[in-house]
Amino acid sequence: xxxxxxxxxxxxxxxxxxxxxxxxxxxxxxxxxxxxxxxxxxxxxxxxxxxxxxxxxxxxxxxxxxxxxxxxxxxxxxxxxxxxxxxxxxxxxxxxxxxxxxxxxxxxxxxxxxxxxxxxxxxxxxxxxxx
Length: 131
Known about the structure:
Blueprint: H1 2-5, H2 19-28, H3 32-35, H4 55-61, E1 67-70, E2 98-101, H5 111-130
Parallel strand pairs: 1-2
């Protein structure tokens, strides 16, 4: 449906116009006082974000393939994931079939980004060979 007709946000408002809380709000549909991301530094930045239920998990559950390109949340790649408890430089948030995210200086490149690119390339190869 999205690919066929497109989608446009012509009149939208940011209830908390700061990068990290705004991204968390976009991903969850919740206000900052519900998702707990109030700032872009610890303890209220990426490390406070429970990203186990986002627009990506909902779209994926409905049968869509999903991908994330660009910046996730500030300190993703540096802080531990609230969901897994592990360092986020290897964490791929649930619901994303493929991810390519920007990383802050000093963050290690992720195996997940490389694996996601491989998965995406594989899908493209399979799709090309089956048509």
